[in-house]
Amino acid sequence: MTISNEFGFGTQIRKSPYFDATVRWGATGFSVYNHMYIPRDFGNPEENFWNLVNHAILCDVAVERQVEITGPDAAKFVQLLTPRDLSNCAVGQCKYVLLTNAQGGILNDPILLRLAENHFWISLADSDVLFWAQGLAVNSGLDVQICEPDVSPLQLQGPKSVKVMQALFGDSILDLKYYWLREYDLDGIPLIVSRTGWSSELGYELYLRDASQGDVLWEKIMAAGAPFGLKPGHTSSIRRIEGGMLSYHADMDINTNPYELGLDRLIDLDGDFDFVGKSALQRIRTTGIAKQHVGLIINGPAIKGPNTRFWALEKDGRTVGKVTSAVYSPRLEQNIALAMVDADVAALDTELLVYMPDGQTSAIVVPKPFYDPKKQLAVS
């Protein structure tokens, strides 16, 4: 019996406004994220990595759907969603936040954008937060409106992204600070532009506010970027693991709490505000954690692509955790990985046994991020 490897694109899964453009520009593989198709393959992933770190790439990330929160109590409601203190989040600012449930588990790790005093977007990783937020609002007693707006982001990332942006928007883009946003009109195309991205490199996200202009926007950016070596691409597993950036459903999920990830800085349990999961996180802070997320160097030949399943970790004959994200870094010439392990084996230099699909090998616990630990490239 012959099994076909061709997959059709149905109507049940949404296409982004850039879908046709990405196919024209060489996308050969897609996966599903937030009920939408996302390009995952533009050829050799190492070539994509080098394009990112040396020049610039344009990525269709329209799958980062927005939850829009407006109304007189919008700020109060957004604070209810996250343990991070938002009292100093100014209009025009972005914040990396965690959304937690009543048990302190992480529902999502989005970027929060504050467009106006009572106008917020939550730019999502992969989970159905729109339903969560709408359900929470029903009994909150707060006056808010929650919807998914017509907004579709692109990521323009890499050291030459600023040159491309300058060609598109002029010199005004040069003073847009890291994790801040600004509204633009690009030849009639309405955009919100932020100095953010999922690459650990200098970069921008362009939030298109009119899906009908997706094809035009893609081509306009690619044309402006041609003199600077801009290539179409996809979010780089190599670069994001080098940077220690976490992926929802891989490195964390609803059963993971922020303390296990070392994200204490995103929790304010002593602030004069309430949020979902506060009492649970107070208990966890008191009792401590049983698991901890760590970096690993995995010995052996280069891993062929990122892992597509969790790999078991063992110590002295005991299963002690799992590899959550792994890849070979051509720059570091090492297999690098992120892993969730029992707290008693999380110390640096601890040696573990890794069970991979093609056999077992050793690994050692190391600091993360693996490259540019102070995020100087992204902030520059």
Could you walk me through the main structural features you see in this protein, from its secondary elements to its overall organization?
The structure is a single chain. The chain has 9 helices and 21 strands. The model is unreliable at 1-5 (pLDDT under 50). The protein has helices spanning 19-24, 45-54, 74-81, 129-138, 161-169, 214-225, 237-242, 278-287, 376-379; strands at 29-33, 36-41, 56-60, 66-70, 94-96, 99-100, 106-108, 111-116, 119-123, 145-147, 152-157, 181-186, 189-194, 203-208, 230-233, 291-298, 311-315, 318-329, 334-342, 351-356, 359-366. The strands form 5 sheets. A 6-stranded mixed β-sheet has the order 12-13-14-11-3-15, with helices on both faces. Strands 16-19-18-17-20-21 form a 6-stranded antiparallel beta barrel. Strands 5-8-9-4-10 form a 5-stranded antiparallel β-sheet, covered by helices on one side. Helix content is 20%, strand content 31%. It folds into 3 domains: 19-63 and 151-240, 2-Layer Sandwich (Gyrase A, domain 2); 66-145 and 257-287, Aminomethyltransferase beta-barrel domains (Alpha-Beta Plaits), CATH 3.30.70.1400; 290-380, Beta Barrel (Elongation Factor Tu (Ef-tu), domain 3). Helix 5 packs across helix 6. With 380 residues, the chain is an alpha+beta fold.
